[in-house]
């Protein structure tokens, strides 16, 4: 699990997304939201948005809250996604770091230090790769590894996810997703660990279906 703890765990918090909207499992209702009356209609709209999304270009701001540190840890960067399985996460503040997923392989860059991994060689890492890419695509709506409940207000959907997979549940207590009703894509994520430390990630200035250069998904 060395690779998971060192590299994948920080980034799974950034982009784990939509799963199993139709489950009957119920969790605490968030303040200002009410249960969705017709989750099947919501699923249809998210599926339609997914089918028409070929690429995503967005800035992100990540806020990490740790119980033993009073000050919040703020990070910023850029996310690039190209259907079906290409993803680039590039941190720019307070440090520079790049992670690329492309065709089942992961490439990382930290200054002059570059590494490459075959995610398909390990079942756990392969599952994480599928979850990450699937979450960006939006095609894990019925994934059996999560239980969920769906809420809404006038502008936003809120989806509460609970990992059912024992390995994922070791690291994640819950995931809260905020999905704007204008385009039905994720705008904010809150990930809570079992220690109740949590991370909030906001996606800013999203551009959908903009052409992204092929070289963006390789380390230069």
In a few lines, what is going on in this structure?
The protein has a single domain (2-217), classed as outer membrane lipoprotein receptor (LolB), chain A, CATH 2.50.20.10. It has helices at 2-15, 39-51, 123-137, 166-169, and strands at 34-35, 55-65, 73-82, 86-93, 97-102, 105-110, 113-118, 146-152, 156-163, 174-180, 186-192, 198-208. By secondary structure, it is an alpha+beta fold.
Your description of this structure?
α1 packs parallel to α3 (123-137). A hairpin with a 5-residue loop joins β10 and β11. This protein is 21% helix and 40% strand. The protein starts with a helix and ends in a 12-residue tail after the last strand. It has a 12-stranded antiparallel sheet with strand order 1-8-9-10-11-12-2-3-4-5-6-7. It has 4 helices and 12 strands; from the N terminus they run αβαββββββαββαβββ. The model is unreliable at 1-8 and 13-26 (pLDDT under 50). With 220 residues, it is of the alpha+beta class. The chain has a single domain (2-217), classed as Lipoprotein localisation LolA/LolB/LppX (outer membrane lipoprotein receptor (LolB), chain A), CATH 2.50.20.10. The chain has helices at residues 2-15, 39-51, 123-137, 166-169, and strands at residues 34-35, 55-65, 73-82, 86-93, 97-102, 105-110, 113-118, 146-152, 156-163, 174-180, 186-192, 198-208.
């Amino acid at each position: 699990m060395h690779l998971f703890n060192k590299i994948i765990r920080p980034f799974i918090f950034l982009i784990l997304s939509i799963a199993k909207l139709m489950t009957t499992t119920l969790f605490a209702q968030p303040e200002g939201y009410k249960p969705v009356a017709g989750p099947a209609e919501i699923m249809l709209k998210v599926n339609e948005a997914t089918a028409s999304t070929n690429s995503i270009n967005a800035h992100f701001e990540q806020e990490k809250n740790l119980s033993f540190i009073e000050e919040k840890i703020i990070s910023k960067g850029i996310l690039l996604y190209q259907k079906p399985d290409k993803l680039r996460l590039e941190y720019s503040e307070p440090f520079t770091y790049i992670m690329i997923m492309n065709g089942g392989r992961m490439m990382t860059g930290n200054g002059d230090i570059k590494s490459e991994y075959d995610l398909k060689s390990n079942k756990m890492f392969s599952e994480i790769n599928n979850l990450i890419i699937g979450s960006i695509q939006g095609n894990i709506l019925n994934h059996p590894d999560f239980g969920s409940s769906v809420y809404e207000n006038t502008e936003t959907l809120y989806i509460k996810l609970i990992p059912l997979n024992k390995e994922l549940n070791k690291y994640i207590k819950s995931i809260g997703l905020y999905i704007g009703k204008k385009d039905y894509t994720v705008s904010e994520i809150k990930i809570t660990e079992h220690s109740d430390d949590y991370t909030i990630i906001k996606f800013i200035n999203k551009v959908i279906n903009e052409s992204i250069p092929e070289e963006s998904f390789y380390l230069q």
